[in-house]
TrEMBL record:
Top-level taxon in the UniProt lineage: Eukaryota
UniProt name for this protein: CxC1-like cysteine cluster associated with KDZ transposases domain-containing protein
Length: 100
């Protein structure tokens, strides 16, 4: 991404269907579809971000991706999921205001 004040990384990532783990200088972006899947999954099973991230990290390791720090993926994924769920919640509130 070519990042500048007029084109922040977070905006560009969302335009490409990914959600950043941080609003400024994100080090991970997660597919919006994946975040929606996990959000729905955690409605039906006990939410366990640690187990989810560990499983994903092991799978990605098999695919050739390596992570420098322990729990690096878990922390960043948890941030992205939390921000995504908050944004969806706020959008739903605004839609309810318009409909009501």
């Amino acid at each position: 991404l070519a990042v500048c004040q007029c084109r922040p990384a977070a905006t560009q990532l969302i335009q490409h269907g990914a959600f950043p783990c941080a609003l400024v200088w994100p080090s991970l972006a997660v597919s919006l579809d994946m975040l929606e899947f996990v959000a729905k999954l955690f409605v039906h099973v006990a939410p366990n971000e640690r187990a989810w991230a560990a499983t994903l990290e092991k799978y990605l390791n098999v695919c050739g991706y390596q992570f420098a720090a322990k729990d690096s993926l878990r922390c960043r994924f948890a941030n992205a999921l939390s921000h995504y769920q908050m944004l969806v919640h706020l959008i739903n509130i605004e839609i309810s205001k318009i409909v009501d």
